[in-house]
Amino acid sequence: MKSKIIGTGSYLPEQIRTNYDLEQMVDTTHDWIVARTGIEERRIAADDECTSSMATIAAQRALDMAGVAAEDVDLIVMGTITGDYPWPATACIVQANLGAKNAYAYDVSAACSGFLYGLSSANDFLMSGRGKRALVIGAETLSRSIDWTDRNTCVLFGDGAGAVLLEAQEGDSGILSCHLHSDGHYLELLYQPGFGAKNPASIEGFNQKLGFLKMQGNEVFKVAVRSLTEVSKEALAANNYTSADVAQFIPHQANLRILEATTKRLGLTKEQSFVNVNKYGNTSGATIPIAIDEAYHQGLLKEGDLILSAAFGGGFTWASTLIRW
Ligand code: COA
Questions:
Q1: Which part of the chain is the Beta-ketoacyl-[acyl-carrier-protein] synthase III N-terminal domain (predicted)?
Q2: What is the pTM of this model?
Q3: Which CATH class, in words, describes the domain spanning 2-171?
Q4: Catalytic residue at 30?
């Protein structure tokens, strides 16, 4: 018995913000952004869109692809750090939007690793026999947590949502294993200082911009490459495979240089590694399900293929999975 992906879906807002648009907003250039990150443009949610609205569309598309009704879903897990409200879980809002009245729903807070943490949680749920189908969603509206006057961070991120529908099925295809790690010592290299219980909302905090994402980019970069490489090797070793067996590597899309360095360290070719960070930037928990959906529709994921995925994000958290498509 395995958790098999039987549906994928994604949603990207229509509004495109190019590097040339950013040149008008902060002291940066298109060439600098492309050279340091590989990002050319990103999507920005419209005023009437938010994390739940984008997640609902992505999830409905995954259900439609599988031909499964929302009432037949038993669990909805959503990786997000930009939920509609501090609480309750945005997954519950998506549940209501979909009409998935027989599911229970919760969010996972693991920043850019949120989707793979959610996938692991849903896989455990299905393999324990507690249900038959689970929706796993990654969705973010990071444009609302970014300081658009800070060139160090605002060029990197974007909005979007992706989802997969898992079904417990007999056979060899599906999730082979999931691997999760975290290390809270790195908290302040990548986090949002306000407005939780530690630094609650206040005029002073607002003036100090505590509600925006803070990051020490070059420190994050080094740990990200090391962790993504190690956790990817861990997934391969756990299943007695090597890089040569991988049909597609679908890593978290943070920065082209991180992707290229990781791909090289793993001994993977460019053809084995999926990239779309140039179009969407870093959509945190949403990058991997969006990439899975795009790779599938581009014909890159075929029955029996071995798919390796890995993520790294705030916490720090990092994770991987190996999937037989
Ligand atoms: N445009 C122009 N110059 C910029 C800039 C921008 N958008 N952002 C930063 N700079 C400047 C810096 O101010 C610095 O100038 P200084 O030398 O005068 O102080 C210079 O560029 C170099 O900064 P540095 O941070 O060393 O650059 P870098 O090569 O590390 O690239 C990042 C910066 C953010 C692109 C890179 O560190 C990175 O991608 N890190 C990982 C971030 C990430 O992916 N986080 C999420 C993980 S899930």
A1: 106-184
A2: 0.98
A3: alpha beta
A4: no
